[in-house]
Amino acid sequence: MSIPPLSVVVPTKDPWPGLKDCLDALLDQVAETGAELIVVDGSGEGLPSDEASPYRRVKLVRAFGESVFALRVRGVDAARGDLLAVTEDHCLVDGGWCAEIIEAHRRRPEAAAIAGAIENGSTGRFMDWANFLMTFSPFMAPIDRTERHRIPPPPNVSYKRSVIEGRRLEGGSAEFELNPALAAAGLMELDDRVALTHVQSLGVAGTMAGHFHNGRSTTGMAHAGSPWSSRRTRLRSYLNRPVSLARHTLRSVRRRDLPIRARLSLPLVVVLCLCHAAGELTGIATGGAGQSPEAIG
């Protein structure tokens, strides 16, 4: 069996048709480039059961009830491609996304990973803009290459297989260990031509909870099993985290030419920074992520 040039992994926790728009944007591209498309289904109902469905061409990995971090690892383990891209079920890739990934790695053989641009597809509500800006503002096109405090987020990062082989990837390790290490070593390149759109609207309470759980997952996984003495030292250094997180986020936003609705959402960006920082502090203080990884969709 030939090795595909690219494996695209899409974890999902939602039943069908939650994944439909994401897959519809990918199916033709995957066929044109000879890539493989892997859906990691955490609900047991992620794909339609119709045997005649075009989605039957998708490689399905079932992992009922697992966190999105664990689902990503399952997909990585199942991938066979020379390149590996992991995106999210609420993202819509641009036309030619698969081909752009392959070409970007061809142009940069020395790059271990390439991160692309992310645009906002949920623009109708202030909280939706705040959610996007809090997470992705440095990575809108053109990507802010002066930003050194933020690591490219998972939805639009692709890797050469050599980076993944031989590594023991566990839940969250790619996001919290591998990506920061590659960025620090100068092995993660940025490419605006590899672009997708992030579509997510969770409401006010859901968005605030999501950022808390994301923050707790980040630090809780990293500090699981750490002695209290080391966590206490880390906790002290994080006491100014809400201020620093808000400062770096708002600095990135100020550099952008944004619509008025996005500008008016900036007070909510500060609220979400506080939620995220509260989650991070909780993760350090308790030395664990609790149920937060499972709460992230």
Walk me through this protein's architecture:
By secondary structure, this protein is an alpha/beta fold. The protein has 2 domains: 6-123 and 138-198, Alpha-Beta Complex (Spore Coat Polysaccharide Biosynthesis Protein SpsA, Chain A); 203-295, no CATH class. 46% of the residues lie in helices and 16% in strands. The chain contains 12 helices and 8 strands. α1 (20-33) links the parallel β1 (6-12) and β2 (36-41). α7 (203-222) packs parallel to α11 (266-286).
List the helices and strands and how they pair.
Layout lengths: L5 E7 L7 H14 L2 E6 L17 E4 L5 H11 L4 E4 L4 E3 L3 H11 L5 E8 L5 H11 L20 E4 H4 L8 H12 L3 E11 L4 H20 L5 H10 L3 H14 L5 H5 L1 H21 L5 H4 L2
Helix pairs in contact: 4-11, 7-11, 9-11
Task: Offer a quick outline of the entry.
By secondary structure, the protein is of the alpha/beta class.
What is the typical, i.e. mean, pLDDT? 93
Total tally of structural domains:
2
CATH topology of the largest domain: Spore Coat Polysaccharide Biosynthesis Protein SpsA, Chain A
Count all strands and give the number.
8
The oligomerization state is single chain
Structural class: alpha/beta
Which of globular, elongated, flat, extended, rod-shaped describes the shape?
A: globular
Largest sheet geometry: 8 strands, mixed
